[in-house]
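At this stage, I put together a protein sequence along with its fold in token form, as given directly below:
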Amino acid sequence: MQRSGDRGADALRPVRITRGYLKHAHGSCLIELGDTRVLCAAMMSDSVAGWRRGSGLGWITAEYSLLPASTHTRTRREVSLGAPGGRTHEIQRLIGRSLRSVVDMGGMGGEFTLNVDCDVIQADGGTRTAAITGAYIAVYDAFSTWRDAGKIKEIPLLDAVAATSVGMVDGVELLDLDYSEDSNAEIDMNVVVDGQGRFIEVQGTGERTPFDRARLDGLLDLALVGTGRLVELQRRVIAENLETLDERW
């Protein structure tokens, strides 16, 4: 099948990462995958929720939103509706779980909360997976800021975390679905992994057809191809201290 940009079935969309996008955030990153753009920001606060007090441990929480003009039709700001919708709530929890799985909460310098905000500027499929991948960079930079301020001695990250989507469209297994592919997928899956390729979360649905174990294994293998490339990019950005990175496959 013909894909946008003439990319192959196992190819990611072009990726662009811009660090330090926001002046006041402790860590921030604009991540672009094709036409999907997500702004991720991380800021430390000197308190934790009541249930966490007295533990001596930190916490990470995430918020996610679609900006009004990010989709084909205007999306109402959820603050005007009184509370996040079900989809938003589920994605926020996914982002938070994914980040917490690779952070040593005891190494955050005490009872501090790292607040991670992921705002979708433009949506063309894969916003939640882009948010997780970009949020990792923002979190790393926030912890770097925290360390440089003398609050911690070491960055309390145990590993990297990245995510991508896979699915089956017209019987073909595809990596990193854009909106047109995602909206027509027979099978749709979001996969979160750590830097060692171990699964953190798998969300898979037979949208139009059930799938067997062989199909599941094939899609997971394809997801590992994509997340492996994304983790490599994250490591390059950090190791080479890059402000921006562009990658095309």
About this structure: The mean pLDDT is 95. The radius of gyration is 18 Å. The helical segments are 78-81, 86-100, 127-148, 179-182, 213-239. The longest strand covers residues 36-45.
